[in-house]
Write a structure and sequence with these properties.
Chain lengths: ~750, ~250
């Protein structure tokens, strides 16, 4: 058969097929036509014409769908991205991109993308908009910045953002504008983990060397579904090389199902397990006394503290048999120092999460694994120059402190989102009336959605910078369209992760920005000019990056040629003969600082609340095909995660007369949602679970629409008592037939 | 020497993240809810040597050496390409009858509702031949569970891995239909007993065994008959000329 004939016939048919595809795929294309603007590309779900042999260019970038920032190579044909491949050189992402990364093309060409500035016309959340030019939008925003600052001081504004390479420009703007309020998504996530580990090791977050660890206890983390690079990849490699994985989780996740041992632990009792492990290791003298003596402080206090936390006691609390706890302690100690309690990431679980994670940190300290292969690694010394450094102006009339200062004894400087929300709603201690939100979605990210609504209603002006009409954008006054990451130039960033160490990466546009979008950097620059702050933003991004990388020709070269600079620095022994950044200079198995503050020097076990009769504890989770509330309106990912049913155990479901697929009503003390039941053995009888990001109120997400139930709507407003971080596993719900 | 591209899969590394399904669908422009590849799931016996409770098995068209889909195709649209060993579909000849679909023991083929022709994995033929890129499922995989290459070429990693594991490699097939698949699973894999016997729809069976040969027979007979008539004309003319000459 003639090869060229085949291709031309194939091409013709395929083009015709694409034409049919354009006409045929989904009702959302009706919306596409309804919103057709002059800058709209001919986009539908066929992103390449099979048979198009035009020149293919390869351009480096990195994914922005989740915090991992995997290195990728975009294949571009006629200025259209037709394929995304992993960057094999990237030490952190190890040559992978996941389903969400591949779906980045769908995000780029999502017909529902925000295309131009929008100003609310009707009531907040009503969905009536008028189009503004950028001039008008920035003029208006600047006026609002001034108005609110005049009425309420500069701290009348709150700036919040997500995990994004340009987010630190929002921080810069907040600083030079003069507001202290920068509570952001991290306080809904891992502040408690960072706090716990910081207070033990003098640095946090911890970097786990999964690849070389021989014994890994994973509590709550679900690395084969909640992908974190390189940990998820390294975990599989480690297991294949003989490492042992023990998982504690009320759900039989894919990680639990692939572990050597899985215990469906009673939710909230993890600390009991950890304390009992320490009791065995200390009682049976399974620790390394030299390491303990040289590198730690507080051992004697710890020994006394855990004496009564026996495996028998812990078995009653956790439901894990005492002999297993004892055996695991011995196995773990034998494998030490290449043994770890995996720190995990999202520690927004209970009101005592800081202490739970501090107990993880203390056990890691006891195992002697800090700064050693297979243990927790120290922060590497790879930093870029601080480019365009500045001295923020001083604003006389500003209040002394943040609106949510002192709401918890061990808060981080940024404050916390839920305490800020309370301050806004109650105008206590003073009013905060403006919100600038970038690449973040409090309406779906914060527990108790009704309260978030009230918070936004209480604001005089809300600005959202986003790529899609998220629920937060839907509730805003001014919505500003940002380009997707594939269309952007970004400064250089450093990221360190697990066994990969640190790397430097950056972005240049893979395709020109679509529609009338502006990056948040450009937006802030425009605002700064209008607010007499122009000198703090009077540079371009290429110039900024040059300054960051000054005197680092090897970094620049690697970025140009490989799309990434891998530090390849020493992973271990970074603290050799150097004190830790704790007050004692050593690993603090017992914290004198906590004691001074009137807090427990060593975590004290607190039994979680009993689940009331006929109720369930609601837990949240992740899978490999969605990211928070970022990816629901994605044609490709909707085919993997079309909805977010409630996971419920068969025994529990039977008692309620609920079958798989039934419509159900899930109620908490703050609200209820209607959703669908997924009856599964993979969850404890006393626990239920839902994915987040569904049940959207926005009409601007036409692919997913209002499908599913919003977990944010159901969750009660709990925080960690020490740190203010969200506590998302303290809500009890009832379930019944809808 | 002809190439034989094949996939070597270590399914014990698969975490069912669906990256391979997503990548394939994206780069090959597949329609909604139809797939060229899959991940099969099985529960393991907790008592067995394998400590894991579940096993995930990625798969797709096996580019078989004796493909039953090719046998079932009435127009010869689908064929084994001897140059690279993949089973291809010539869309100029495919009439979308779908007979090849049940003929595949692996369910690897499906009818594309947009093009109304049959579609299946072709090892990213377009990307390989035009741009030298690997199949998308291979590039994207987080745990690198897939190895792809020409198993006739001793220089490739695929060849070497296959040779090193030749005693324990698993090829999935149905006992009634051995198609000699070119997808090799390393170590143990599960499930193993899912391929179905190849089925050809009765009308197609009838056509292939009776109607087509019948038609060929009729056509052959017609041609033969026409040749006989033509030959007869030639001989008859010569005799008449002879008669004419004799009668003069």
């Amino acid at each position: 058969m003639n090869n060229s004939n085949k291709i031309s016939r194939r091409r013709f048919l395929a083009l015709a097929g694409s034409g049919l595809a354009s006409a045929g795929i989904g009702g959302h294309l009706g919306n596409l036509k309804a919103r057709a603007e002059d800058t709209l590309p001919t986009s539908d779900n066929s992103t390449q014409e099979p048979g198009n042999k035009d020149k293919l260019e390869s351009r480096f970038s990195f994914c922005n769908i989740c915090p991992n920032k995997c290195g990728l190579i975009a294949r571009v044909q006629n200025n259209r991205v037709v394929r995304l491949d992993p960057n094999p050189e990237h030490s952190k992402s190890r040559g992978m991109i996941c389903a969400r990364g591949n779906a980045g093309i769908q995000q780029l060409y999502d017909p529902d993308r925000l295309k131009y500035p929008l100003l609310r016309k009707g009531k907040r959340g009503e969905g009536k908009w008028q189009r503004l030019s950028w001039e008008e939008a920035l003029d208006l925003a600047a006026k609002k910045f001034r108005d609110i600052a005049d009425k309420y001081t500069r701290c009348g504004w709150w700036f919040t953002w997500g995990a994004d390479a340009q987010a630190h420009f929002v921080h810069r703007f907040a600083n030079v504008f003069g507001s202290y309020h920068i509570a952001n998504h991290e306080s809904l996530c891992f502040w408690t983990r960072n706090r716990g580990f910081l207070d033990v090791f003098g640095e946090g977050p911890p970097y786990p060397d999964v690849l070389n660890s021989k014994y890994i206890i994973m509590i709550g983390a679900n690395r084969f579904e909640s992908l974190i690079t390189p940990d998820s990849i390294d975990l599989m490699t480690a297991i294949q090389q003989g490492s042992k994985l023990v998982v504690l989780d009320p759900r039989r996740t894919k990680t639990a199902a692939r572990a050597h041992e899985w215990f469906p632990v009673k939710p909230g009792t993890d600390m009991a397990f950890i304390l009992a492990l320490m009791q065995v290791i200390i009682k049976e003298r399974l620790y390394d006394p030299e390491v303990i003596h040289k590198e730690t402080t507080g051992f004697n206090d710890l020994e006394k503290h855990v004496r009564s936390y026996t495996p028998e006691w812990a078995a009653r609390e956790t439901g894990i048999p005492a002999r297993d706890i004892r055996r695991i302690a011995r196995e773990m100690a034998k494998a030490a120092p290449a043994a770890m309690v995996y720190p995990g990431r999202r520690s927004s679980t209970y009101t005592n999460s800081t202490e739970i994670w501090r107990s993880f940190a203390i056990l890691n300290g006891l195992l002697g694994n800090f700064d050693r292969p297979g243990g927790l690694l120290a922060r590497q010394d790879l930093s870029l120059h601080e480019a365009k450094s500045y001295l923020a102006p001083w604003y006389e009339d500003n209040p002394k402190e943040r609106a949510d200062a002192h709401k918890a004894p061990l808060m981080f400087e940024d404050g916390a989102m839920q305490t800020m929300r309370d301050a806004v709603i109650n105008e206590d201690p003073y009013p905060v009336k403006g919100l600038f939100a970038y690449h973040t979605n409090p309406m779906q990210a914060m527990p108790n959605r009704e309260k978030t609504r009230r918070m936004l209603e209480n604001m005089e002006f809300v600005i959202s910078v986003d790529i899609k009409m998220s629920d937060t954008a839907w509730m805003s006054d001014l919505v500003l369209p940002a380009p997707s990451a594939l269309e952007r130039r970004d400064p250089a960033s450093v990221k360190q992760a697990g066994s990969a160490g640190a790397c430097v990466y950056t972005r240049d546009p893979v395709v020109p920005p679509l529609f009338d979008s502006k990056s948040v950097f450009e937006i802030l620059q425009g605002l700064a000019k209008r607010l007499d702050l122009g000198k703090f933003f009077d540079f371009g991004l290429e110039e900024y990056r040059e300054e960051q990388l000054k005197g680092m020709p090897e970094v620049k070269k690697a970025l140009r040629e490989k799309g990434v600079y891998n530090h390849n620095g020493s992973l271990y022994g970074l603290y050799k003969d150097k004190p830790l950044r704790t007050s004692s200079g050593k690993i603090e198995l017992s914290s004198a600082r906590y004691k001074d503050k009137g807090l427990d020097p060593i975590p004290v076990y607190e039994r979680p609340q009993e689940v009331p009769q006929n109720s369930f504890r609601l837990v949240v989770g992740r899978n490999a095909c969605y990211t928070n509330s970022n990816t629901q309106n994605n044609w490709l990912l909707l085919q993997f995660v079309p909805n977010n049913p409630l996971w419920i155990n068969p025994g529990a479901a039977k008692k309620l007369g609920i079958r798989d697929g039934d419509q159900i009503k899930v109620s908490s003390s703050v609200s209820h949602v209607l959703t669908v039941a997924k009856v599964t053995q993979d969850i404890r009888e006393d626990t239920v679970c839902m994915w987040s990001g569904f049940g959207n109120i926005s009409d601007g997400l036409t692919l997913v629409g209002h499908k599913g139930g919003s977990v944010a709507e159901l969750l009660e407003d709990h925080i960690d008592t020490l740190n203010g971080n969200a506590a998302l596993h303290e809500t009890f719900v009832t379930v019944k037939q809808a | 020497m002809k190439s034989q591209y094949a996939m070597i899969i270590d399914s014990s590394k698969c975490i069912d993240c669906k990256a391979c399904l997503a990548a394939c669908k994206q780069v090959n422009d597949l329609p909604e809810d139809h797939w060229r590849n899959w991940i099969k799931y099985s529960e393991q016996d907790p008592q067995s040597a394998e400590t894991h409770l579940v096993h995930f098995q990625p798969g797709g068209c096996m580019q078989c050496n004796t493909p039953t889909c090719v046998e079932a195709c009435p127009t010869r649209a689908t064929y084994k390409d001897e140059r690279d060993g993949t089973v291809k579909i010539d869309y100029g000849l495919c009439i979308g009858c779908g007979s090849c679909i049940p003929a595949c023991p692996y369910g690897a083929r499906y009818r594309n509702p947009i093009t109304r022709k049959v579609d299946k994995c072709d090892f990213c033929d377009f990307w390989r031949n035009n741009f030298g890129l690997e199949p998308a499922c291979v590039s994207t995989c987080p745990t690198k569970a897939r190895i792809f290459g020409d198993i006739h070429d001793p220089k490739t990693r695929a060849y070497q891995v296959l040779r090193e594991n030749s005693d324990r490699v698993v090829r999935l097939s149905n006992p009634q239909t051995e198609t000699k698949p070119n997808m090799f699973y390393l170590k143990n894999t599960a499930p193993k007993d899912w391929p179905k016997p190849a089925r050809t729809p009765d009308p197609i069976k009838a056509m292939l065994c009776c109607l087509t040969p019948g038609l060929q027979g009729i056509l052959g007979a017609s041609i033969l008959g026409a040749l006989v008539m033509w030959g007869k004309q030639i001989f008859t003319r010569s005799e008449e000329e002879q008669d004419d000459r004799e009668s003069e």
